[in-house]
Amino acid sequence: MKLCMIGTGYVGLVSGVCFSDIGNTVYCVDKDQKKIDLLNKGIIPIFEPGLEEILKKNYKQKRLIFTSDLKKAVTNSDIIFICVGTPTKKNTNSADLKYVYSVAKDLKKIIKKKYKIIITKSTVPVSTGDKIEKILTNLKKKKLVDVVSNPEFLREGEAIRDFIYPDRVVIGTDSKKANRILKSLYFPIIKKTTRYFNTSRRGAELIKYASNAFLATKISFINEIANLCEKTGVDIKDVSLGMGSDERIGDRFLRAGPAYGGSCFPKDTRALIDTGNKFKTDLTIVKSVVNSNDNRKTLLIKRVVKILGGNLKNKIITFLGVTFKPNTDDMREATSIPMIKYLNKKNSKIKYYDPSGEKVDFKDLKNVNYCNTISSACLNADMVILHTEWNDFKLLNFKKLVKKQRFKIYDMRNMYSPSRMKKLNIDYYGVGR
Q1: What pLDDT, in 10s, does the model give residues 82-116?
Q2: What is the predicted pLDDT for the residue at 78?
Q3: Contact 159, 173 (CB under 8 A)
Q4: Catalytic: 4?
Q5: Which CATH class is domain 201-433?
Q6: Are 254 and 244 in contact (CB under 8 A)?
Q7: For residue range 324-339, what is the model confidence (pLDDT) as tens digits?
Q8: Helix 336-345 and helix 284-307: axis angle, to 10°?
Q9: Does the pLDDT at position 402 exceed 80?
Q10: Mapped to the 3 state alphabet, what secondary structure does the chain carry?
Q11: For site-directed labelling of 283, which of 184, 189, 248, 395 has its Cα 20 to 30 A away?
Q12: Which of 4, 18, 28, 264 is the catalytic position?
């Protein structure tokens, strides 16, 4: 099939590349000409394992086309995916849908004769599809378009695997024609027909938000239980294992650590609360999750201060990993940002190393320095904070890294054994332990 992905951000680029890899011709469109030029050179703007290789292969085979010409891409395509950003509006909880509606208005001008399926792959609140359809009313009357919701469930760092081996493909439409075509499109990656789920458009929109809110709830829940574990002398890992062994609960997302971050959970939980308010429904659990997550960042900062005895001046503090999760360069809502900014204000000297490279988030901060190696980052450190669970950090020789100096380790991902650290005579602190 011939597909058009509007927006070459995380969702649009990964989906476009993967769709081309299963034999489709894919046009990836973006207004940012610099980004398009880089993509045409095989340079990708995001850190996602395996994406560059698949992109280059399909670009070479001419199944993948990067362009800023929206009219040409839409005209030559059968299915149009809207993959633009839906960030949180400033000073509100609501999702900013101006980019989505702008695309819909552009499509209204471009589509003339041939039938197209218009898909919102961007995460959008309930009823957004109705508003897009309203913008395209005349085209809908002429049976030239069907507006469908097809939310993405791609984890950063695992996106290619998630696309090729999906837990489910959710298609929100009551159009039999659109449903038949999309089932054919996804057929190569649906190993079981039960994984293809057709529902209403509003149902699909809400499934995405409800899924992310539930996962965010699991994270906030186990983080709060971890706080209790620290007061009661219980190891949170035992609690997580004991709970997760129950099939009704499951062990995924029951790992205590920093606050959740990234491009999805923070904005989606806020947007769901806003949607609830618009439909006069009080989503008290989701509100509590958002509050708990916000408080988490402050609590972790206080823990660092306490471990260092309250005196932060001239302390050398090393962060190993600063992204919100491993295998991505995404810094959006990462716990490291408020932590480093606070410690910097208190005159600590911050060093950090992250496998995905230096971060612009810290470039304007004095005494915050990026290090090219783990060893240079840890040299002379008073405290080493294991912030992100990159594989690079799972088997470190701390004695060798920090020489003979007495230092403290704050393992925010519980990667190491407390008993092992005790044997090595290292001051070790975990989360919920």
Answers
A1: 999 999 999 999 999 999 999 999 999 999 999 99
A2: 97
A3: no
A4: no
A5: alpha beta
A6: yes
A7: 999 999 999 999 999 9
A8: 40
A9: no
A10: CEEEEECCCHHHHHHHHHHHHCCCEEEEECCCHHHHHHHHCCCCCCCCCCHHHHHHHHHHCCCEEEECCHHHHHHCCCEEEECCCCCECCCCCCECCHHHHHHHHHHHHHCCCCCEEEEECCCCCCCHHHHHHHHCHHHHHCCCEEEEECCCCCCCCCHHHHHHCCCCEEEECCCHHHHHHHHHHHHHHCCCHHHEEEECHHHHHHHHHHHHHHHHHHHHHHHHHHHHHHHHCCCHHHHHHHHHCCCCCCCCCCCCCCCCCCCCHHHHHHHHHHHHHHCCCCCHHHHHHHHHHHHHHHHHHHHHHHHCCCCCCCCEEEEECCCCCCCCCCCCCCCHHHHHHHHHHCCCEEEEECCCCCCHHHCCCCCEEECCCHHHHHCCCCEEEECCCCHHHCCCCHHHHCCCCCCEEEECCCCCCHHHHHHCCCEEECCCC
A11: 248
A12: 264
- pLDDT tens-digit series, residues 343-390: 999 999 999 999 999 999 999 999 999 999 999 999 999 999 999 999
Residue for token digits 């898909």? 119
Structure token digits, residue 417: 């054994």
pTM: 0.94
Crossing angle of the two packed helices 201-232 and 128-135, in degrees rounded to 10: 150
